[in-house]
Design a protein that fits this description.
This protein has one domain (18-350): Amino acid/polyamine transporter I. The chain is built from 12 helices and 2 strands, in the order αααααααααββααα. Helix 2 packs parallel to helix 12 (321-354), helix 3 (66-74) crosses helix 12 and helix 4 (76-108) crosses helix 11 (300-317). It has helices at 8-20, 36-60, 66-74, 76-108, 115-132, 134-158, 176-188, 210-236, 246-252, 265-293, 300-317, 321-354, and strands at 255-256, 260-261. A hairpin with a 3-residue loop joins strand 1 (255-256) and strand 2 (260-261). The protein is an all-alpha fold and 363 residues long.
Amino acid sequence: MDKERISPRQLTFLVISFTIGSWIVLPSGIEAWQNLWLIMFLSLGQGLGFAYLALLLFRRHPGKTLFEIHEIVYGPLFGKLFSLLFLWFFLQTGAGALAVFVTLLKTTVFTTTPDLALLIPWVIIVVYGCRRGIEVIARSNEPLVLATIGLIIASVFLVLNIFERENLLPLFNLPLSAVLWNSLGIAVFPFGQNVLFLMLLPKVNQPQKVMGAVFRGMVLAGLLLSLLQFLAVGVLGKVGELFVFPTYEFYRMINIGEVLTRLELIPLLNFLTMGFIKIMLCVYTMAVGTAQLFNLRAVQPLFFPLGILILLLTRQIYPSISLHLQYIKDVQPYFGLFFCLLLPLLTLGMSFLRGGPQREMAS
């Protein structure tokens, strides 16, 4: 598995899937509902800044994962402590996406189905995909991303008869503090979570193209999410902020000649594919990180126990959708900022202070 390689194009597609992930149905910053599609651009700029800091670490330590960089910069003991923190971050990120999956299906389609009946098959598929390796994950992801992009673009034409421009008004009706707070929330979720890719960048077969690939993926994902949010506001108006899953709700309102109606299957498919890839990448990076942390020779035996762990902790970390929403609003901006900005910035600063050889790579 150490010999596995992915191309920069596949990395771009993985970044798109991971960024879209669960945000496509459960957006953060919902308090800025009518301006959310505009704030997305400010958040994207901040997210690109976070990514640039993380990529500077990779440029200074080419061919090394985040956990290996920690040991180089902080030494074996403190390096492992920093890596353990990020293991928790990857676990919580995956558990959050899995919790959204269960809640969405239980509140829309499988209303009387027990949680475990939804979780167990999902985790089995995730574990199977991880055991096949990152090359297979990347290849499988390409058609899923293209299908998702196609469905989002097609949505523009599907809502033409119910889209109301007046619903977008008023623009810029929020105080600056609210704009900055909500933009920060979106910057860390979903954009800042891409720090996870520091565990996968050594597998890219053209390291000099890593920065461009990551940036392209984030920008494309940001544009897609902004477009989707723009359509949701135009269709639902102010009442959209009252829904837990606003994207799902606006697709339910589509009605073209009494033939194309209730197309809520579209956001379900988008989330089931993109969320599936996001959870899989979380489990995969957790396994790679655990193997490096404890000097294990193989990662494949780790996938199943880590899949069980994420299954068990999903309902413990996010016991209800109301607490999940409260966490996204009040806690996640601080929590995400710690992992997406402060820790990478500290590690980068320590790396510069310690000096050492580096190989420059073109962006």
